[in-house]
Amino acid sequence: MRGYVELFRLGKTYDTHNGPLVIVEDFDLNLAQGEYVSLLGHSGCGKSTVLTMIAGLNSITTGGVVIDGREIDGPGPDRGVVFQSPCLMPWMTALDNVMLGVNQVYRNATKRDRIDLASYYLNLVGLGSILHKRAKDLSQGMQQRVGIARAFALKPKMLLLDEPFGMLDSLTRLELQEILLEILVRDKVTTVMVTHDVDEALFMSDRVVMMTNGPRARVGAIFSLPFDRPRQRADVLEHPEYYEYRRKMIEFLEGQDHAKIKNTRERDESKTSEPADLSLSSP
Ligand SMILES: Nc1ncnc2c1ncn2[C@@H]1O[C@H](COP(=O)(O)OP(=O)(O)OP(=O)(O)O)[C@@H](O)[C@H]1O
């Protein structure tokens, strides 16, 4: 199946002081237009590495990424990125922070139209009344809302989210998840989100991609979720299959844990046996 977004045999090798280290290898995934896919896996397995390669912010070692028929080569306005922390210009207002990107991408639009576009998305994320407040005076949750508005205002084909709610308190996190889903359904943006949170992945996604532990991480399992859209949190939580999917995902992660412990033990045993072998073979 060809997808609107295709990741084909995507791989990343970092140069380390111990030599090249293959973090991600043969990562294959197709996404339909408007689909929401989460990447779930243990810390350090390579989720952000995959996401930043799609964003064009991290060079691709092998394979490639095709979006809407074109292979990517670096970052572009067709992909909006939201990180855990939005990195706003602290001295600029919420509106001006969003305008920075809008001015770049919509150079030919009138100033009025550009302001309207930025204000529209700031309104959608609930910041209509503080457009002119400086970023440094906003709470972390408000700053993250500005980051989300900034990404949507460029009308990207794809949205790439790297633990976008990771630094927020739980109430703000739940509220922003819902706001984000509402805008995504409205704008039909194809989305990849990195998360550690099984419940967040279940609530937000159409499919959840489980990554194996690195090095040489790849797609380990894919869960296609049966929850309708638009979706309400209560309906998802009450869905008869919710806890079965949740259990299977946790089981997958625990399976990766056991594999890791087994590999580490085998490596340690072979390390401790080395001196004995050497002493046996020494003259
Ligand atoms: N520039 C780099 N050079 C060398 N190794 C790197 C580099 N960037 C990341 N790594 C290593 O690659 C591995 C994967 O990192 P990555 O941040 O993609 O994992 P992750 O699954 O997103 O982790 P987390 O869930 O903790 O954010 C880690 O072991 C990390 O130390």
UniProtKB/TrEMBL annotation:
Pfam families: ABC_tran. Its main location: membrane. Residues 5-238 form the ABC transporter domain. Residues 260-274 have a biased composition (Basic and acidic residues). Keywords: ATP-binding, Cell membrane, Hydrolase, Membrane, Nucleotide-binding, Transport. PROSITE patterns: ABC_TRANSPORTER_1, ABC_TRANSPORTER_2. GO terms for molecular function: ATP binding; ATP hydrolysis activity; nitrate transmembrane transporter activity. It is found in: Cell membrane. This is Bicarbonate transport ATP-binding protein CmpD. It comes from Allorhodopirellula heiligendammensis.
